[in-house]
UniProtKB/TrEMBL annotation, chains A, B:
Belongs to the pterin-4-alpha-carbinolamine dehydratase family. This is 4a-hydroxytetrahydrobiopterin dehydratase. The keyword Plastid does not apply. Its EC number is 4.2.1.96. Transmembrane segments: none annotated. GO terms for biological process: tetrahydrobiopterin biosynthetic process. One of its GO terms (molecular function) is 4-alpha-hydroxytetrahydrobiopterin dehydratase activity. Keywords: Lyase. The keyword Metal-binding does not apply.
Amino acid sequence: MDTSDLSGWTRGSRPDHLFRRFVFDSYAQTRRFLDDMQAVCDACGVTPQNVNFGTTYVNVTISAEGDSLSPADWEAARRIDALVRPASEATQP
Amino acid sequence: MDTSDLSGWTRGSRPDHLFRRFVFDSYAQTRRFLDDMQAVCDACGVTPQNVNFGTTYVNVTISAEGDSLSPADWEAARRIDALVRPASEATQP
C-alpha cells in the first residue's frame, strides 16, 4: 500500500494509529472541516476514536480497531487530507 | 449567580474554566450531541476552546476568554446540561 502521499500524518503504535493536526484561520473553517471529516469517515466506514478541536485547530487520530490500520483507515486519512489540500497545508508543530 | 445546578461540571483555573465528560451509548448519539452543543454555543455566543470526542464520549471545556467565566459561559454550560438531562446523566469517572 502506497502511503507516501500521507506525509502530513504521524504514525504511532499501541494501538497502530495515524495522527495529524489541522490548523484553520477561523472557527467557521474548523466547523466546516469537522462536518466534512465526519462525512469522509461515514463514507469510509471509519469511526474516529479521538478527535480534539478548539476554535482554530482539529487534532485527528485514526486508530486501528484490530492489530493494524485497515485499508479503510488509510483511505479515510487520504480523503481527510484532500479536504485541506487546496488550502494552506497545516504543518506539524 | 446560582451555579448549584451545574454539579456535573468541574471548575478549574488558569484560565478559569468548566469541564465535563459526557458519555453516550452510540456514535450516533455522540454526533447528535456535538451538533446540539454547537447550536447552544452559537446561541450563547460562546466558542468552545477545547472539545475532545471519541466514538461514545465528549469532553467539553469552556474556558474564560478574560479573567473569569462570563454569564454567557455559565448559560452555555447550563444549556449543554439540558441536552442530556432526560437521558442517563454521565457521572464523572
